[in-house]
Amino acid sequence: MMNNKLLLGALLAVVGAATADFPSTFGSAGKAISLTPGETELYNHTCARGLCILRHMWFGGNWPGYDVTRLRVYTDGEKLIDGQMFLMHGIGFADDDAPWSAGTLFGKTGSPSGVFNTIQIPFNKSISITAETVSNKSERFWWIFRGTEGESSVMLGNKALPPEARLKLYTLEGAEQAPLSQIAFFNTMNNGAVLMNILSVNAQSETFLEGEVRSYAKGKPANDCSMGVCSTMGLSSGTEDYFLGTYYFNRGKYHNPVSGVTHLNHTDGEWQFAGYRLHTDDYMLFPSGGFNMTWRCGEFNGATQCRTFAYSYVYEW
After folding, report:
1. Whose CA is closest to 54, among 187, 132, 147, 160?
2. Which stretch of 5-19, 92-106, 224-238 has the lowest confidence by average pLDDT?
3. pLDDT of 263-301, one tens digit each?
4. pTM above 0.85, yes or no
5. Which residues have a Cβ under 8 Å from the Cβ of 198 and sit 6 or more positions away?
6. What is the CA radius of gyration of the chain?
7. Which helix (H) or strand (E) holds 86?
8. Smallest Cα–Cα separation from 156: which of 53, 262, 275?
9. Which DSSP string do the residues of 178-243 spell out, in sequence order?
10. Nearest Cα to 168, choosing from 55, 290, 314, 317?
């Protein structure tokens, strides 16, 4: 009888230990809160154990300039994410198309809000999420944040990243590009993995879509050459094929789990384009020492000036 009691106690101890090690969920929701001018903290959480990961955001509201509401995420006291709400979700030119989703990672369900994502944002100690509106008066705002703690690593597709990996958002806003000039989505000296690149461009001619995406790794030969430019690795033969389109996106907008065109408009003398490209299964991994990805405004004579916004989510360690 005693042996049975000891065995039961041992089993309960094992179950208890397993339960204690199992991740748990944290989060909250804000309903019709008053978002006043200036930066307002929406939510914060202190990590109790292991690695914590914010896993879900959703936003509601409706006012002029809602799309450029500034969202900031501070992880362990450091501001690593700071961008315009719509562009952070791959949407350019305040495009109000809905509903759509990029698989389960992000999307838009309503007008003008219902923007959501399940981007994994890891932290060890604390997280704080803020919003800053361009409105000069108080606006009603809705939000949901949720995550887990007691985790061991962030997953990129089916690949576990090192526990020290942190997500950073690189932003370039309103860059005036001369024809044939390159902009960098990001530059880093760290090890890393690209989660997503977002590009939004206004140009005077469709020839900007000839612009190629390239990568450069310090210490590696730049012998992949196209249109007079040599890089470590050519990533596309034009803008549309990096975003998995063809013939200047001749079937219009689309949204899928790998890439999407969230805005496309051309009238006499003006072209507008915005799209996203995920690297959750098509991995873009790089070692430390120096790495960047670039996009060029056109590739040959006849290219025109571009006004460019570029966002890149990159895990680094």
Report:
1. 147
2. 5-19
3. 999 987 899 999 999 999 999 999 999 999 999 999 987
4. yes
5. 87, 88, 90, 92, 274, 275, 276, 277, 309, 310, 311, 312
6. 22
7. helix 85-88
8. 53
9. PTT-EEEEEEESS-EEEEEEEEEEEESSGGGGGPPEEEEETTS---EEETTEEESEE--SSHHHHT
10. 314
Q: Indicate if the alpha-carbon torsion angle 302, 207, 264, 87 is positive or negative.
A: negative
Q: Copy the structure tokens of residue 265.
A: 């408009």
Helices vs strands, H then E, count in the chain: 3, 26
AA letter at 142: W
Length of the chain: 317
Place of tokens 């309960």: 12
Q: 256: which 2 tokens?
A: 């899928």
CB 305 within 8 A of CB 203: yes
For residues 114 and 144, what is the distance between their CA atoms, to the nearest angstrom? 11
